[in-house]
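User: Some background: our group keeps a shared notebook of sequences we're curious about, and every so often someone picks one and asks for a predicted structure to add to the entry. Today it's my turn. The entry only has the sequence so far, pasted here. Could you supply the structure so I can complete it?
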Amino acid sequence: MNSSGWGVRDIPDQSGRVAVVTGANSGLGYVTARELARKGARVVLACRSEVRGSEAADRIVAEVPGAEAEFGRLDLGDLASVREFAAGFPYERLDLLVNNAGVMAMPYGTTADGFETHFGINHLGHFALTGLLLPALLDAPDARIVTLSSFMHLLSNIDIDDLNSERRYNRWTAYSRSKTANLLFTHELSRRLTAAGSGAVAAAAHPGYAATNLQAAGPRAEGRRSAERMAELGNRVFAQSAEAGALPSLYAATAPDVRPDSFHGPRLAMWRGAPARSWRAPWTLNDAMGQRLWGASEELTGVVYGQLKV
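Assistant: Of course. Here's the predicted structure to add to the notebook entry:
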């Protein structure tokens, strides 16, 4: 399928499929969950806030007649919560996992387990979640694992010797490194799935510049009202909508021609437009670095992908 002009109308029927979308209470995650439900998938909205997550699930059911949407509590910044979510996952198989949730340009902080916030939430939380849900994914024919990165990964490779930014912290560098980690994770996961003879496909996507709450979250956390207003203004003037920004994720999750380790984003300058194959930095295709990050991630999270040992 040519992705030119691809839109929600082109999403294949998802009836009978079970999907988990992290961070689905708003923005890109909400649109992704809603459109998957519209096409017949049973969708679990994996969110930190029970109030916001439950309200989002109810909103989808109200917007989409016959939709099957439910809330599942998941805090990616707390590995105990990740384990609890996976242990309580009520379905025998999982057809689609969209690792959507994330933070951007936050002031320095750490997760419940002591990891730098961007690395801990954007990468390690999703690494652990995917590994813990792996048996359910491998039980599904043609499962998909889609992890959201960003064109901002172009700003920085990871520092394998300083994954938690302990030597020096810069919010944009930390964010960019976490987005590189997302692509390295997809690269190594794809390699391991192929080696294991699995039909599951791991792919990545990015939304370009989409209007979501992500841009203003960092300034808001620090009380920088002027920066928050600038972020909101940028969303109104320059960004495409969350509906448009979610299309690369939906394409990677459902289009029949998506290949393992592919990266999809907006067609026009990685910024806006219909989904297409996106350029990525060469360091995100480095086998040795992908394997080193994988090993470090298993050690840090305690989650070992036993069925994908190579």
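Suggested note for the entry: The radius of gyration is 18 Å. The longest strand covers residues 42-47.
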